[in-house]
Write a structure and sequence with these properties.
Mean pLDDT of chain B: 97
Structural class of chain A: mainly alpha
Structural class of chain B: alpha/beta
Radius of gyration of chain B: 21 Å
CATH superfamily of the domain at 6-255 in chain B: Amidase signature (AS) domain
Radius of gyration of chain A: 22 Å
Strand content of chain B: 5-15%
Number of strands of chain A: 2
Low-confidence stretches of chain B: none
Distance between the termini of chain B: 13 Å
Number of strands of chain B: 11
Distance between the termini of chain A: 42 Å
Order of helices and strands of chain A: HHHEE
Largest sheet of chain B: 8 strands, mixed
Number of helices of chain A: 3
Order of helices and strands of chain B: HHEHEHEHEHEEHEHEHHHHEHHEEH
CATH class of the domain at 6-255 in chain B: Alpha Beta
Oligomer: heterodimer
CATH class of the domain at 5-42 in chain A: Mainly Alpha
Amino acid sequence: MALERSDVEKIAHLARLGLNDADLPRTTEALNSILGLIDQMQAVDTRDIEPLAHPLEASQRLRADVVTESNHREAYQSIAPAVENGLYLVPKVIE
Amino acid sequence: MHQLTLAEIARGLADKKFSSEELTKTLLARIAQLDPQLNSFITLTEDLALEQAKAADARRANGESGALLGAPIGHKDLFCTVGVRTSCGSKMLDNFKAPYDATVVSKLAAAGAVSLGKTNMDEFAMGSANESSYYGAVKNPWNLEHVPGGSSGGSAAAVAARLLPAATGTDTGGSIRQPAALTNLTGLKPTYGRVSRWGMIAYASSLDQGGPLARTAEDCAILLQGMAGFDPQDSTSIDEPVPDYSANLNGSLQGLRIGVPAEFFSDGLDPRIAELIHASIKALEKLGAVIKPISLPNMQHAIPAYYVIAPAEASSNLSRFDGVRFGHRCEDPKDLTDLYKRSRAEGFGPEVQRRILVGAYALSAGYYDAYYLQAQKIRRLIKNDFVSAFKEVDIILGPTTPNPAWKIGAKNSDPVSAYLEDVYTITANLAGLPGLSMPAGFVDGLPVGVQLLAPYFQESRLLNVAHQYQLHTDWHTRTPAGF
């Protein structure tokens, strides 16, 4: 199934990527070429095969529920695009 | 002095033939002179390097020793470094100074390694040619019109050109082994979980693994020793003891069973590379190895499965780059959605955008089972092929790449044609196995690599075989003209 321009616009919105209108035809073509490669997968018989998430089948380690991190707010905010009074600034969300 | 390997540097420093400071100054001068041709560094850290070199010399004067104490290295620019930009080859992180060091960086610094700078790479490690970097393409020292491979292309070019004896890299689908092959180096991708991913900017978390690039297996053993080990900060790190890699290099290959998969010699392989791989098999037979033909029947499905799993994980990992807390932010956003969309569109290059879109599509409602889940099932089939094969053999051998380095720009019009170059390396990432590439000869003056794969946590076996091979061949000692 080939993607249409409108599909790519929808996916780009999901991924929060602002694509240029001018780039859309080329991007659509490239994505369809990649999906053509990926679709070769559909011919593989995987009945009764369990999906593999971690190559060594390791599960998430747990740790004791104690505070281990100290406060790094100043260090983290020193690399932010815009901060004020310890808060990250973004455009107004609620009018 | 620039021709010295890590092992030779360690002996020279121990014997007081030169100091780390002298060596560091020599290499920094060489980088200043020669790197403009190659573009292998994104950021040079001269002051930090000299400071670390002097500290290493002082530690040696106080009686300390260690194979990495005073050894100059470089870090691929996705290992976070406090106070030094970590760009990941992207405009998105052009202004990013990490608030902490990657575990790999802090471990190597503690061992006394001297970091000369951060090496160029494909943007967010997505590429096999080092052409997608925001900081420009890297040139192959063997032929400046050709790519060095990727995504650890800057590390590979710098080490091949004798600007550094060794460097760190990362391998998600072949990004250590493929550039090593294309620049006549030895490169090792460890078992998934062997080297900490803490502070290593994520591309595809279930595949990414850091490892060494150097000119010899002996040097890979030294650098890997400094990188490997359990790290509680990395939730997928494996708590297994780390063997002494250098101590295991000299084992005999008598009776070693080497499996040669038929699928590694299919139609796409350049016949001149096939010939060199067969010559390397003959050389290993002479050392006592026994060759067994084997089959990895699901190998052909590896690239399609990889191009679902890696982009899906990338689309999730890269969602953190939103223009709010760090990284690039667009000018004058009109609302929050505009801030996200424009910051990301401006900050990410075309290949990264393509992979984010493919991943977002594969994970979107209604498609998850057909794509991500199917790819994970194929991943198990591929792993099962290896588990069966390793019941019969100790090592699997084949080419690292189907072709030598291509010309810069030759594969830009069709991303899929570049994806296919990773056909022999991707399976090790999907299965989580360790793999190594080592020099096997030249085609038209361009290097060719032979790849070895081993069972989980058998990095020692890979290094042992490669070291014995290098004691009896001299491909790895060849230096590119002009460097």
